[in-house]
Sequence to fold (194 residues):
Amino acid sequence: MFSVAAPQARGKSAQDNIFAANNRAVALADKIGKDKVINGTVGSILDEDGNLVELEVVKEAYARLSPRQIIAYAPIQGYKKFLESCIDQCFGESRPSGYINACATPGGTGALHHAIHNYSADGDEVLITDWHWGAYDSLIDYPDRRVVSFRFLTEDGHFNVDAFREKVEDILTRQKNIVIILNGIANNPTGYCM
Fold:
């Protein structure tokens, strides 16, 4: 097959285990009944009938916007007031001193892509937990980064500080910077919160 994609982008595809499990759960519910299947795969809020929940506060906020506010192009970096609010929400009362900035991205996956692309170099290792969303592997393996993981939880179910520290120190013997992805709020797939 002929492709005009750059060599590093050819053949990139993946079957996400979570989406595959969701598809199987939906098909099984259609076959044997929704009341007999609990689909715990979707990273969204669903009602008792399995329909996506629309948060009223979001619905009300959109209703107050003009069509121009909804569909106009935003600045590439994002609106300054929005970005400042994101930083405030991220750090709250614990904002560290030092340079902090933000940029708007198309969702969380876009943010991960930007972080990996902009803060790691070809050949770098990117550190993630052994329990992680499978898409991390594809995001990191582009164009020439390597996935390195550490044991996320101790035997008694706590964050494994020692394994984390050991991997960070090891990686920093080979490279100047390190990108670390810690999905510590409702870790996917464990649900663990630090």
